[in-house]
Design goal:
Elements: H1 8-15, H2 18-31, H3 37-54, H4 58-65, E1 66-67, E2 74-75, H5 77-93, H6 97-108
Antiparallel strand pairs: 1-2
Length: about 120
C-alpha cells in the first residue's frame, strides 16, 4: 500500500525542526554520504507519517522522551518502551521494517538508545 505524497509545506516544517536537521546531518556523517533530495524526502515522509500516528512532532517527541537531571538529560525508559511499541505498530501498517528503521534511525541519531526485547 502506497501512501499519498506529503504536502511540500509539511515536509519543509519537518525538515526545519532541530531534531530532524541533527538526524540528517548525523546520518550523512555516519555513512559518509550525501543523500539525494529524493532519499531525504522519502525519509521525511515516513517520519511525518509516524509523527501523525503518535501525535507528536519530531522535536516534541524527543523532548517527551527525555527529562532533565542535575547530571544532564536522561531517557524516560517507560516512554521509550511506549515509542518502541508504536514503531512496531507503525511497521505493521506502513510497509514493514524499512519504515520502522527510518524512525529508529531518527531516534538513534538524536541520542535515544534503542534495545531489542530479549529473545525468549
Amino acid at each position: 500500500m502506497s501512501a499519498a505524497p506529503m504536502p511540500a509545506d509539511r515536509l519543509e516544517r519537518l525538515a526545519g525542526q532541530a531534531t530532524v536537521t541533527r538526524w540528517l546531518r548525523a546520518y550523512d556523517a555516519h555513512w559518509e554520504v550525501s543523500q539525494s533530495d529524493d532519499q531525504v524526502r522519502s525519509k521525511l515522509e515516513v517520519l511525518g507519517r509516524f509523527c501523525l500516528a503518535c501525535g507528536r512532532e519530531p522535536d516534541e517527541l524527543l523532548a517527551w522522551l527525555f527529562r532533565d537531571t542535575p547530571e544532564g538529560p536522561r531517557i524516560r525508559l517507560k516512554r521509550r518502551r511506549q515509542v518502541m511499541a508504536l514503531i512496531d505498530d507503525f511497521e505493521r501498517e506502513n510497509g514493514g521494517r524499512p519504515a520502522g528503521n527510518v524512525v529508529r534511525s531518527f531516534l538513534i541519531h538524536n541520542g535515544v538508545a534503542l534495545s531489542a526485547a530479549p529473545l525468549r
